[in-house]
TrEMBL record:
Presence of the UniProt keyword Cell membrane in the record: no
Official protein name in the record: BTB domain-containing protein
SMART domains found in the cross-reference section: BTB (SM00225)
Pathway per the UniProt entry: Protein modification; protein ubiquitination
Biological process terms in GO annotation: protein ubiquitination
Length: 488
């Protein structure tokens, strides 16, 4: 009987987690000592710290190979096992040592849950018979609370708008809400965070939103914040230079006649008589659902077509000896710089209708891309080699010169994605020259990120431009590197 019980104990020992077995378990019916870890959980589980406390508990369970108890993958063994007949004893059943060991360990885990819970949470699991039962009760309870809290926070996020707040205040409000969502186990994906930020901004940020959301990979949060701040600064700078008082969007005077402009979205169906008319009997004389299909606007296509055949052109721009024909009204509408140059007539002189502009400090290929953008709102693909970076730099300068803000952002984004040890010096010089603060910050962060980066950039050919044209950047780099070293 003794040898039979010992062999049975040895066979059943394999059912237990190895960490729960003493070295003598395979040769003795003595149950292994349970593992206690409640004193290693440093905080009491409550509604406010569920995720943090859960992480500690899971870590302890996994480190001792005990997670199967609460997950249900290591269920309770049978309390008795059958023993085959031997020469000295008949067949029968004996107490299963694995059962006793399982019960001891499971109760030790349950005790750890109770001792590490607040009174509020402990009252929910005080009648649980197993650690798994207590675990499921806690998980289900906090899952329901997290779901309700998540819904509340997401509603709050949708209702958060910048309005007249500074960008820093608005951004921090959005960040606080999203951080709270993460703390309850409901984090936003990077693209969801970006969408949430732009949801609360007005149309002044649409161009930036289009550039950022068209990226193949989500933009890092610190980069997004830098670009938002840069856009806000440019917006405020433009507002401060507006001359002539407040411009009204719903009233203008032309030739002595008052013209009232009404947004289409603000006109109700009954105001314009479209839809249906009710008869005296309450019936409808016109079908309530129109069969007319209105196609999407193709205004942009027609404007782009003007560049193809140059019908009605009244302006010639000469760039590096090459002539480009264009429409004065379009140039003026797209660029405030062109508007000032083309629409301002000297006193006492009548507008002749034909205009000629000479640009001597720009490559024809750059102006060709600039003109194409002004007609089509798009650019040809920019190559990823050094020529592509040079083209993007030149186009950035042209966009800044003619105050084409969306084009400037497109060029910034293009250069941002091409930052490496060989290009960063030239890109940094362009960012400094054309007041691209976010792009400048990205370049400087890249340079000081590691000693190797700093060494490679200094040895690169483009760094000479920094030393000769923008020596103050050297001081900024040294200060930034020093601050980084102190912080670490």
């Amino acid at each position: 009987m003794g040898s039979s019980a010992a062999s049975t104990s040895s066979a059943l020992a394999a059912l237990l987690p190895s960490s729960a077995l003493p070295l003598s378990a395979t040769a003795s019916t003595t149950a292994p000592s349970p593992i206690h870890f409640g004193n290693q959980i440093t905080v009491k589980l409550s509604a406010a710290n569920h995720l943090f406390c859960r992480a500690q508990v899971v870590s302890q369970l996994q480190s001792h190979l005990l997670h199967g108890y609460v997950e249900g993958t290591f269920p309770c063994p049978a309390s008795h096992v059958a023993v085959p007949a031997t020469d000295s004893a008949p067949a029968g059943q004996v107490i299963n040592p694995a059962y006793a060991a399982w019960i001891q360990q499971d109760q030790a885990i349950l005790n750890a849950f109770l001792s590490s819970s607040s009174i509020e949470v402990g009252s929910m699991i005080m009648f649980a018979k197993t650690s798994r039962e207590a675990w499921i009760t806690i998980e289900n309870s906090f899952a329901a609370q997290s779901s309700a809290r998540s819904t509340q926070l997401r509603d709050q996020l949708r209702e958060t708008h910048k309005l007249n707040q500074p960008m820093s205040v608005y951004y921090n409000k959005v960040k606080t809400i999203t951080d709270t969502l993460a703390s309850i186990g409901q984090p936003l994906r990077p693209e969801e965070f970006v969408s949430a930020v732009f949801h609360g901004l007005d149309e002044d940020y649409d161009s930036l939103a289009e550039v950022v959301q068209d990226r193949p990979t989500p933009i890092p949060e610190h980069d997004l914040y830098a670009r938002l701040m840069s856009t806000e600064q440019r917006k405020e700078a433009r507002r401060s230079t507006v001359v002539g008082g407040v411009h009204s969007a719903n009233a203008a005077k032309t030739g002595g006649c008052d013209i009232t402009l009404i947004e289409a979205s603000s006109v109700r169906e009954d105001e314009v008589g479209v839809g249906h008319d009710e008869t005296e009997n309450g019936g409808s004389s016109v079908a309530s659902t129109s069969a007319v299909v209105v196609p999407p606007s193709d205004l942009h296509k027609h404007i782009a077509d003007l560049q193809s055949d140059w019908r009605g052109t009244d302006t010639t721009i000469v760039v590096g000896g090459e002539e480009f024909r264009a429409h004065r009204w379009l140039l003026a509408a797209r660029s405030p710089v062109f508007a000032e140059e083309l629409l301002a007539s000297p006193k006492g002189k009548k507008d002749s209708g034909a205009h000629r502009i000479e640009i001597n400090d720009m490559e024809p290929s750059v102006f060709k891309s600039l003109l194409r953008y002004m007609y089509t709102d798009a650019l040809p693909p920019v190559s990823t080699d050094d020529d592509g970076v040079a083209t993007a730099r030149d186009l950035l300068g042209a966009a800044n010169r003619y105050k084409l803000e969306r084009l400037k952002l497109i060029c910034e984004d293009t250069l941002w994605q091409r930052i490496d040890v060989n290009t960063v010096a030239g890109i940094l010089a362009a960012a400094e020259q054309h007041q691209c603060r976010a792009l400048k910050a990205a370049c400087m962060d890249f340079i000081v990120a590691s000693p190797q980066n700093m060494k490679d950039v200094i040895e690169a050919e483009g760094f000479e431009e920094i030393k000769t044209k923008f020596p103050t950047l050297l001081t900024e780099l040294v200060m930034k590197k020093s601050a980084l070293i102190k912080a670490s």
